[in-house]
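URGENT: need a sanity check before tomorrow's submission.

F., can you look over the serine-type D-Ala-D-Ala carboxypeptidase record below? I want to be sure the sequence and structure line up before it goes out.
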Amino acid sequence: MSHNSVFRSLIALLLVVLMPVVAFAQQPLLIPSPPQIGASSYVLMDPRSGDVIMENNSHERLPPASLTKMMTAYIVERELAEGRISMDDMVPISVNAWRTEGSRTFVREGTQVRVEDLLKGVIIQSGNDASVALAEFVAGSEAAFTDIMNQQAQLLGMTDSHFANATGLPHQEHFSTAFDLALLARAIINDYPENYGIYAEKHFTYNNIRQPNRNALLWRDPTVDGLKTGHTDEAGFCLVASAVRNDTRLIGVVMGTPSNEARSQEVQKMLNYGFRYYESAKLFSAGQQLLDTQVWGGAQNELALGVKDEVFVTIPRGSKDALESVVDIDTVIKAPVSIGDELGRIRVSLNGEVLLDEPVLALQDVPEGGLFKRLWDAIKLFFVQLFS
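Structure tokens as predicted:
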């Protein structure tokens, strides 16, 4: 066989090998506009990153109805986590709690009920009586409890929310937003995962009365595992739901839909859209070291820099390899340095759009070196800066 024939055979073989790669090269994901949602306000959020995928009027102050009980439950869960109360504590049921109107767990005045049963009554049955009983147990009165609710709202960044009761019964000074309620759902999921399973329970029986969870998506979508429904004539039908698919969790909130069916359908549309086109990507672990840098005048010459907490971004599905990162750190870092000192920034972008701008922190203490070390480093730094 001639050299030309061999060469042509090799070219043909390479084409056969490479053609599948060329033919099946991954194309960029084409993302359509978000679906139209029939609600007064709505938002779809990734609770890991806090990024919003879609929203409309999400900062409009509206009556939250029984979505309020998410805050009531969150405060109770905080008290449990900090050891101030326990699930087995017995809560006395007051006349005030027993007489609270609206949806009920059917607790009886003059009896005592376990905290766990009342918490399930709040989350699963949306019991107003259980909410008031827990509020009185935690803070002494429902009014005092609402003070705690409003303080907690500010700590969570819920700047457009104000609570006047623990139940969500109508009150002119009682309001929240779809965005704030997504923040609250994010806190419930991330802060107290040991109790989050309650939000997925479909039924709860108390006083021989079995009631279903009003979140219809728990029956329709096996990936949905929470959180809460709400309804009054003033608020319309509201829903906060969360689901996990392919290691990505999303939170959908709708407020002011016209019916029970509508709230379920509209949140389902948002979740399906979000999961189809987006994913949650973990970029860094808590305390992860990004680089070493020079430190001058210290007991050691190098300093480890990194990030404090886990870092996630929400990106179009399949685009993680296209992310670009740039780290900018202080030109000259001098000892002493303490853990947590901010010494730069890391920026992550996708196709020119900045997705993340986070501080780069010192991961270790670097005390000052001895007198000779400081003098020697000062001399070296002088010449480095002189010729740079």
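My own read: The CA atoms of residues 66 and 230 lie 4 Å apart. Residues 3-23 form the longest helix (21 residues). If you see anything odd, call me.
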